[in-house]
Amino acid sequence: MESKEISPATHETFDWSQRRVLVTGGASFIGSHLVELLLAKGVRRLRVVDDLSTGLRENLEPYLSEGRVELRVEDLLRDGAAREAMRDIDVVFHLAAIHGGRGYIDRHQSECAQNLALDGLVTRAAVSAGVDKFVFASSGCVYPVELQGDVHRELYLREEMVGPGFHADGLYGWAKLMAELTLEACYREQGLKSCSCRLFTAYGERGLESHALVAMISRAFLRLDPFEVWGDGTQIRNWTYVTDIVRGLVLAAERIDDATAINLGTEESITVLEAARAVLSLTGHEAKIILRTDMPTGPLNRVASNELARRLLGWTPEVSFSEGLRRTARWYFDTKRREQVEREFYNKLIER
Q1: At 172, is the pLDDT very low, low, confident or very high (cuts 50, 70, 90)?
Q2: Would you say 73 and 60 are in contact if contact means Cβ atoms under 8 Å apart?
Q3: pTM above 0.85, yes or no
Q4: Among the listed residues 305, 317, 303, the one whose alpha carbon sits nearest the alpha carbon of residue 246
């Protein structure tokens, strides 16, 4: 869908202190950072709905004990749950999803397919409740996989590359794509103001070991030798720090109404092997890297263009990969207990 340019002045008229906000999946890694930012902006009332399958109640402390956040532990697939969650809500950030790292989404396609129902229920409830704005956490997985197979090509995925001839990345990607198209139809036919934000390889504090970069940090924390890297190491990603991600989500709520889909990703192209070496260097862990070409890798070359986000949102990433990696590793080493990480690590690589 073609989008208008939005004047920066729009941001000044969006008064969060008058907004009642729902964050689905708000106890999760990204969701809890979004909650923090919204509270800092003075949101009038903030409700989180999360089934705590991957989210943690502790991610929302001390806001729960202070009464600044209402947490409902709920499965949004339950009949009526989405409708109840929308009651008296102005703005929805829909982050809840059945998801995991590459080891999970490649091996649990039937589980990921449930997102088709989840997103449909949440969207329908938002329309029925008459919410003012709906922001959807989409994914780089909506992009055609055939575009992402050449590591020797300089590639920046642009929003208009998603279109007829769709070829999303697995059932997880197809569910995200269907939700985007549903929101476009709801805007055209029912006036639901919305935006879909395509998130690219988020990482940072509270990230899970199911995702590649935190898994690497965990391997260094456990001093594993040899040091496993999935694939042949040439896969290219643009790891995007979580505070940049949530800042983009909030800007999208403030500035986009017409269901435009927009990338939120840094344009730093980094191979998996480069990331692994950076983790080893940063943590002072000397280990032999071995390549596990038998393990899931996903597309070989996935990097976003963020030109549209710069133009419509005034958004550019503020945290470089080197700085974000330093912050994430420091958090991991400061907060984790070896016994627990050892007990859970290998299961988390392929489960939620």
Answers
A1: very high
A2: no
A3: yes
A4: 317
